Amino acid sequence: MRKLSALSVRRPVTFLMLAFILIGFGIYGLTQLRLDLYPDVSFPTITIYTTYDGVAPEDMESLISRPLEEAVGTVSGLRRVESLSSQGATVLKLNFNWGTDLFVAENQVRRQIDFVRRSLPDDADSPIIFSYDPNQEPVVVLALSSDQRSSRELRTIATEQLEQRIERLGGIASATTAGGLEREINILLRNEQLRQYDIDFSSISSMLQNENVQVPAGELQEGNMTYSLRTIGEFRDVDELRSAVVDFRDNRPIVLNDIADIRDGIAQPIGNVHVRGQEGLIININRQSDANVVMAADNVMNSLDELRSVLPADVELEVLTNRADFINTSLRNLYMTGLQAVLLVTLILLFFLRSGRTALIVAISIPVSIIATFSIMNFADVSLNIISLSGLTLAVGLVVDNAVVVLENIFRFREDKYEGNKAAISGAQEVVTPVAMSTLTTIVVFLPVLFVPGIAGFLFRDLALTISIALIMSALVAITIIPLLSSRLFAAEDNPGSKEGRFHKWYQSLARLRDRSLFGRIIATLPLFILLIGALFMRPLRWVGRNLKHLFYKISDVLRRGFDALDRAYTQTLD
């Protein structure tokens, strides 16, 4: 590692190109990082939900819950089983150890349930198996309301006109309507007629299931064309349902209308939705599992005008909640915190070192280390969330430590009258080992977080990885880029009026690289352009630096005289 410092000073163009490559990969990685509120944490819980209409809780426990509990008890990684039996339904909650692969565990649970499925009652519904996923929470919730239409009409508009349009948007998996009144055909059987015609409930239920189906009817070939045929057997309206034949008595058909009252009604609502005091409904929009929350939400927000254009004039569509707003606000606050940290660090260094060049070198090293970290975060599949951004914010203070240690040692060699290049090489090489050891000791503090069991380890994994990567990058920048910049900036101080100053030397190096080959010309184009822009702004910046240096010298003298006066007063008081 000692040779890297000397090599960076002697081969400045090479290491500058490597720094630009790191920055380029970092910017690309930043654009590819997923934006989310929290890290992707899947709770190790699987739920089994089974329904059996009309059965008491005690019977649900003996007929459904116990056979299922015995079947899933042998699944590996299972920590605890909880069951809740109620009227017509039972819920089994399987808690697994943290770190268990839920995909594998869910397949094992399904396989074990298949073994006991035949022992369950025939009339019971098949068990529904699902695991909780935080990504299943809606990214956007829309509200639909009208002062002229009923909630049933609103639900029809939402299901027939909005849901499919929303699901076609990029990153959107599903759109589900909640609230409103759903159409339901109610068949109210009359007991007297049932007893009169000797018809039971099961025969009516079987008739409805057999009649209300569509059955494939084969294929029809005509030349090179093949047509699929099907028989339409579903009831198209209530009148067809009323005229459905249930049975025959004395060669006379008994239709459903003879033994029941059929009403075109509504289903029992689970809950009511009100928007500004009016009846309405909500549309929950879920993103795809691998989609970016912010991008998916933005796609929905950008399509609102198009969705409103297909609605009647009296129907209002508005956004009720948007997860992207809170994510953007939180991330924006962390961005500002990071920028404020960089600015304060630069000002403090400018105040204590009293040199604009040294403060500028450290100010350059901080964004280089942070931006390079984004590329490794992308490869490590770390999303940009509150935890990882907090790690980057904390890393700003830690990253600057390595740069300050190296720069301060170079500055000490400069005060000992060493020439610019020699001071940069000797100062950096002298502290390479302390910088490496201090970086490793800090990393050792955070890396064990990766092995913490439970939800804490999953949540703070991104924090530990982000800080560790940023520290490694800062150490590399401190022993390469800091000596390189110091040698060039301090060389300009040695010969401020010479043509062989900083920009002139850099220009000559890049010009030689440009003239060697076509490849060298391509590589040198961007640095030459940046060098030209920097040269235009360097003279006013140099003037500002000289004045700030003069100002800080004055402030330091005032503070020194003040502290001396306090020291004398304190000594006199003790005497």
Description:
By secondary structure, the protein is of the alpha+beta class. 60% of the residues lie in helices and 18% in strands. It is built from 20 helices and 15 strands. It has helices at residues 2-10, 12-32, 57-72, 102-116, 151-167, 191-197, 201-211, 238-242, 256-259, 293-302, 304-309, 323-353, 356-379, 386-415, 420-430, 432-446, 455-459, 461-494, 502-516, 518-574, and strands spanning 45-51, 78-86, 89-96, 128-131, 140-146, 172-179, 183-189, 214-222, 225-232, 245-249, 252-255, 260-266, 274-275, 278-287, 315-322. Strands 5, 6, 13, 14 and 15 form a five-stranded antiparallel β-sheet that branches. It has a four-stranded antiparallel β-sheet with strand order 2-3-1-4, with helices on one face. It has a two-stranded antiparallel ribbon with strand order 7-12. α12 (323-353) runs antiparallel to α13 (356-379) and α19 packs antiparallel against α20 (518-574). The longest helix is centred in the last third of the chain and has 57 residues, at 518-574. 28% of the residues are buried.
